[in-house]
Amino acid sequence: xxxxxxxxRISEVIVEQMRLLMREGKLVPGDRLPSERSLCERFxxxxxxxxxxxxxxxxxxxxxxxxxxxxxxFVTQPSSERIGEGLAELMTLTPMTAxxxxxxxxxxxxxxxxxxxxxxxxxxxxxxRALVEQGLSALDSGSYTMAMSAAFHVRVASSTHNPAIEMLxxxxxxxMLMSLQQARVAAxxxxxxxxxxxxxxxxxxxxxxxxxxxxxxTRHLQRxxxxxxxxxxPSLANLExxx
Amino acid sequence: xxxxxxxxRISEVIVEQMRLLMREGKLVPGDRLPSERSLCERFxxxxxxxxxxxxxxxxxxxxxxxxxxxxxxFVTQPSSERIGEGLAELMTLTPMTAxxxxxxxxxxxxxxxxxxxxxxxxxxxxxxRALVEQGLSALDSGSYTMAMSAAFHVRVASSTHNPAIEMLxxxxxxxMLMSLQQARVAAxxxxxxxxxxxxxxxxxxxxxxxxxxxxxxTRHLQRxxxxxxxxxxPSLANLExxx
DNA sequence: TAGCAGTAATGGTCTAACCAATACCCTCAG
DNA sequence: CTGAGGGTATTGGTTAGACCATTACTGCTA
Lengths: 243, 243
Prior knowledge:
By secondary structure, chain A is mostly helical. Chain A is built from 13 helices and two strands; from the N terminus they run αααββαααααααααα.
């Protein structure tokens, strides 16, 4: 008959209220929240409590906090980075290897190809061509980066015109970049061969040739996977080359 | 020559230190952190600062906080739920529909089937059979839940013996459950037809028949997808049935 | 006009205290 | 001897008020 009158933490209530405002579109990316002191008054709580709520929102990637005059809490555009970070964290905290993630990525990037081939517009293909061009010239000048490769793969995914798929592929590339960059394999990973495969992939997409696209992507990703595995556990690579 | 002496927030330093300890395995799931007051002394900071750090760790899903005597902060087992939550949040905060997520899920769950068929052990298959049995009897008694369906699909994914894949499929089912349960479509979604398809899928896996498995899963997921689309925007479903 | 110092707004941190929830222990009655 | 009850210590949750550090603007001065 008489239910509990308190519902856990006050800061949590504030967090939920903020989340709700964002979902409802009453708070949109770029908006500036009232200052901490204002929020105290409005919610009728102390500043510490407001600050804890803001910390949670910040950790959730929903707001960004800047200090100084004209500073404050700003609603951020939610991005796939958060999911990517979560994935990376899981990778480091659970028995999950870079190879595992690479395999998952292969499954996904191969699986979307039928959708890509079916739905890619002329604009998509033009963008992909441009990225290939950039990659080639960057290769010539020796300034090719993993980020450029990632951008290409993400652009391929976005050609499905499914934001969920695009975000997932983006999420995969975050941890991938991290684990590869720190392992100084950025440069040799992507040779002219890789760039050539990118080019061929775009062609296959343009010709709406699913099978060829799959074949190219399979080869392309398998070479990447081999590199990751080798980097993950060099002893295995040596074993293999020794046979 | 003289670099900055301060490096942003103190609480952030503490968070990083904790994260490091977890990565290094010096803190494992189940461990209890010292009390807030102890941490204050050890770090030489105030309780407010320690609490902000704990809030961030809690929001990141790394610790769980309990009040009362013998309470405190406990290191948690990182799970895929966090990623699922992130996905769900992105779904509500960006122009991303349940249909988009369902499509991504279809791509993924279909894509892993070759791996499942290749790697499923006898134990995997026995577990799957058990889940099918449970589902059938639950159906008879009218107690079938979405969670049971999710469990089956996750178990299929775990038969790839790739934790990354398992976690991703788990992540997909979180938001899916949420959006479906709240839409009161739990019961009619899974009829005897669905259960039968589960059964057939297990058979195909046992016979190492990739093509058949794909065919069954495609049909199975497409019916789910149709339900989601219909639920997402009933007007569309009406339109279609009106033609 | 350019540069610089002052100033106000804002987040970051600290202190000290009290409240609320919880588990343990000790006492006392049966 | 055993069970129930309350007391108590531990721990997180919250408050109030203060001070510091950073930052952008403003207006003065050379």
